[in-house]
Structures are given as structure tokens and as C-alpha cells.
Amino acid sequence: MKNGFSQGFLWMSIVNPVEMAIDLYFTAGSAPCRVVLLVAAALDLQLNLKPLNLWEGEQLQADYLKLNPQHTVPTIVDEGFPLWESRAISRYLVNKYGGDSSSLYPKDLMARALVDQRLDFDIGTLYPRFAQYFYPQVFGGAKPDAASLKKLEEALVFLNAFLEGQKYVTGDVLTIADLSLVATISTIDGAEISLKSYPNVEKWFELMKTTAPDYQNANQKGIDEFKKLIAQMKAKTEL
């Protein structure tokens, strides 16, 4: 079965100052994959895009398992070095290609620790709570669970508090924490979960749409694919 996740992403065009492009194995619409696309755009890195159709099990092929035994996306291969998990990839790319002065992942110990905390909040709290609430409905035909929704809303309250009086999630400067979190928030928004109760999140989200480098290509097009998938899955459950 073909689906929108494996198509439509060869549009990506990011100019790279380095000689060899980095391979990115990804699935269009995946929030973690869009994190890597956003970070690469912010670093002006070229990516050699390699879409995987998860519905057809392409992530279980032997060649891919040699790269990533967990058979997850995203995975990069940079000069023969494979790495997966989007936040680990983000740190690696900035550390290698961002230069000593990159503010995306600051060198200052306390500033970096705060970025790490926000990244850990995203991967350990916000995104899992969204997934636990929403994906059973889309992929399993489950009814909305009030307790799971309450946990997601609690996580959004936390993020709203992080942003109180701040331009970005760790202060006045865009970091990889913002790029990671906007991939999640845009997914939540794409799932038609209202952000109106979280004014700081809404304000920041609008800012990110205009300040995250190449936001349209790196994130919005994936959100559009995500919405198409949701519509397809809902149509099947309604048959």
C-alpha cells in the first residue's frame, strides 16, 4: 500500500557548503524527521533525501537494519557514520557543522543545559503524551481518552510556562530546542488540537513560522502530508 508519507519530499532543496551531502532516511510527515530537516535548514546543510515507506516495511530491509538495528526514522549517514534519534542527530549536526559561535546549541554550560532540558521535555513528555492520546484514534480507531487528553493539556501548560516572558523556549535566541518543539507543536496543531488555551505557545508558534529557516519546506510541507494521512485513516475507519 502506497501512502503520502513516502512521496512528495524530493522537493527539498537545501544548499550545502560541505562537499558531500548527508544521507537522511526519513518519512514525510514524521515530526522527528522534520526536526532534522529544520536543523539542516538552519545550518544550511545539504541532505540526500532517502524516503522510507514504513507501511510497506522498507525500514525492515537488511541494508537499513545494518545502519539502524532499531529500524526507526530519522537516520542519517554522514561520511559513513550512521546516527538515529532526532535530538541526537540535531546535537551532532550543530556540533560538527555549526561552528564555534553557533547559537543553535550554545557552548555556555548553563545555556546548553537549558536547551537539553527543553529537548528532553519534548522527547520525554510533550511528544509522547500527544502520541498516546492521538495515534490510537487515528491508527487504531479508538475513542478519545479523557485521561490522556488531560496529560497532554498538562504538558502544554508546562510549555506555556516555559515561554512566559520569553521570545524563544530558552530565551531571546533560536536554538535546536525551538526547532524540535515546533515540529511537535505543529503536529499537535495539524491534528486539530486547539492551542488557544496556551497564548504563549500560540505566539511563539506564529513567530517560529517566520523565523525558523526555510520553515515552509522543512516543516509545513510535512505537516500537509501528515494531514493527508489523517484524512485517509479517518476515511477508512468511517467505512
TrEMBL record:
Gene3D superfamilies reported in the protein's UniProt record: 1.20.1050.10, Glutaredoxin
Domain (GST N-terminal): residue spans on this chain: 20-101
Gene Ontology biological process: glutathione metabolic process
Domain GST C-terminal as annotated: residue spans: 108-230
Source organism superkingdom: Eukaryota
GO molecular function: glutathione transferase activity
One Pfam family, short name: GST_C
Family: Belongs to the GST superfamily.
Assembly and interaction partners: Homodimer.
Protein's recorded name: Uncharacterized protein
Native organism: Bombyx mori
